[in-house]
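Two entries, shown back to back:
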Amino acid sequence: MRKIAFVIPWYGRGIPGGMETLTYDTAVRLTQAGYPVEVLTSTIRDFYAPWDKNHHRAGTTQEEGVTVRRFKVGKRDKQKFDALNSQLMQGNLIARAEQDVFINEMFRVPELYRFIEQNQADYLFFFVGYMFPTTYFGAQIVPENTAVIPCLHDESYARLQLYQEVLPHTKAIIFNAPAEQTLMTDLFGPSEKRQQIEQVIGMGLDDPHTPTPPEAFRQKFGLGDAPFVLYIGRREPGKNTPLLLDYWSRYVRERQPQAKLLLAGPGEVHIPADVQHAVVDAGFLSVPDKQGAFAAALVHCQPSVHESFAITLMESWVANTAVLIHQNCPVTLDHVRRAHGGLYFANYADFAATLDYFLSHPHETATLGQQGHAYVQQNYRWPVILEKYATLFQQMTA
């Protein structure tokens, strides 16, 4: 069979982000299952690094059995990109000519596209992340051998005309959740009109091997016996962590609970002085500590409204821990309703009421976590995911 190439802006173990984790773990698992997998990527370190800096050396390496080909990035006009990106971040659309500037000045990796063009007959290409130049330019080279894993969100970027010119014309589209597939239909029309193969796959998860025991985790971070609400992920406005901290601060002032909020992940957070006693900033956690946090928490809160899969929801359910999510995120809301694995909020009143319920109903809260665990077992174990990819490979090469 043809080689399988995952094309992604940056790649490596431990890079924060759902798109990055999904690609890394899937590439490794498919390789272990005997598929000829490669990764085509740039020399950029990660999302937070300068997008015109060659952090890695260009060339080919082997990482956990996966062949990784990195291509150097060139100069860009960051000022032009930032000006247009600022408009999009505020929910505004930009003219078609400005969209060309936006995509060209995001980052430049021409040698990657040259490699795809010269080797197109040897690969099935899987482009990850719809909005990046690697997908926009790469997917146009050989659309009949191409699948896109868009990680699609309901945002201004998804409504740009330049993506309308690419995404509906590839061989296949792979979704992380049914709600993401519905959004694709809303934005780009039904699959019959697009004449594309569609498959909801997502990402596989395993039970943790050596998590930090809950008691040891509590002791390490000074939590004592008090219940705590957990947030793990990027601490930034795009993930709604300022909203979570605002709601939690108000909840502490009004209710004065014994519970704490533990924040973990990359990014800066500002904790008001009068609620610092009720917030623990754990920073970036090791894998054992991260798994221990999920197991020890009363509930995991994921306030983001822009998710295409929400890995941390699944990780929480793997640990039998219930979740609290924002009602305005279609993907996490769909997961929670299908799994019966948690509750959701739309405003502060909902947030406070659900926390009151979790804190006063520990048995029912544990049951929600157990139901979430069953949902992951049924839908997101690696044997299930690998079987879906096997079917997709057959469809794409038929």
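entry 2 starts here
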Amino acid sequence: DWVNEKLLQFQPLMPDFAARRRRLLAQLAPNSLVILASRAEMLRNHDADYKYRPDSSFYYLTGFAEPEALLCLHNTAKNDLEQMSILFCRERNPEREIWDGLRAGLEGAVTQFGMDCALPIDDLDNEMVTLLNGKNRVYVRLGYDAAFDARFSRWLQTLHGRQRQGAKPPLEIVALDAILDEMRLIKDATEIELMRRAAFISAQGHMRAMQTVRPGLPEYALEAEVVYPYMRAGCPVAYNSIVGGGKNACILHYVENNQILKNGDLVLIDAGAEYEYYAGDISRTFPVNGTFSPEQKQLYQLVLDAQLAAIDALQVGQSCKAYHHVAVRVLTQGLLQLGLLTGELEDLIDNHGYREFYMHGTGHWLGMDVHDVGAYYDADEQPRLLQENMVLTVEPGLYIAPDNMNVEARWRGMGIRIEDDVRITRNGPEILTAAVPKTIEAIEALMQKRLE
């Protein structure tokens, strides 16, 4: 109940979508057009759709969550300050709204979402040919949706076919993501607060799982405990939840979640809530029976040491890959000390000898998408430097395959990952997900406070 009381204290928080559109337009060449479509609805099976979620970049610029929508941003050669936002969307339809829910319609697109103009989506083909005519440059996203790509090609073909009548096809086609992804990568104050809320809600699920797990419980039942606080907060899951007991934790993207949790095993949970289109992403690993065994303690502490060292490496101006190298060094040194690896430390690092037990990166950008947009390398193909208000995950792990005969049996079948969401600041890293215990002592203490 206190969680819900906390949620009630959250004041409504809405990004300034119009300001984002202005920021984007300010970066464009004169006489340009931006075209950005939302994603199509997706069929789940037969005539049942998945619950609709708009494309993240489209929502980032519009706040509009209905399907069948396309945004155009237009600035003219006559006056760089003359800008227009046009939203193509569905018109109001009382009969369809009985079945599918209310629509904003053309009027709502202007009054509720701040568009300069709204046009029927059914008129898109004719209107787009007019909008494209005579533009110097068109910013568009291609390669994501074959149907949209084909439709865009038809618009261009129509213009080329009308050149004798004076039509002027665009001079340049430019990838929109090159600009928009960079905007999304650096979070503003509103986004940071939304991500703090996503992290807070995500944390409740992990703590509830620690307090409800017990031997004999199916993984899917523990998954239900994890997502319960998310649903209570009105949040969908940000991605398919991983609840892997025992050897299942060695499968990095294990989502079947259909086995029985066994006494003496660890369980790895990777789950997060999505709050107002911003994702939380947390991993925790803990003993099903509430107490780490000696071997589990040794491996777990090694992963935790690597994670803490990696977080400390997240400083403004440092390479975005540096924290991975820090984690790799700590893990490799620890594996040598435990006898799971043999050889020289530098050789094992240089030759990736550790990848038998640690085969993934240490993190990724986080935002509206769990694996959020943004380049990891600069124009010179060097790892980019960290900037204030980037947000990323830190998630080192160790995975000892159950059939790995190169190690002693006592180590086999253990998978451990510890993941937090971290904001880059000039004063050092801010751990957004710090509410979830991750030391051995804190986890065991929380697990003693069982929820019934």
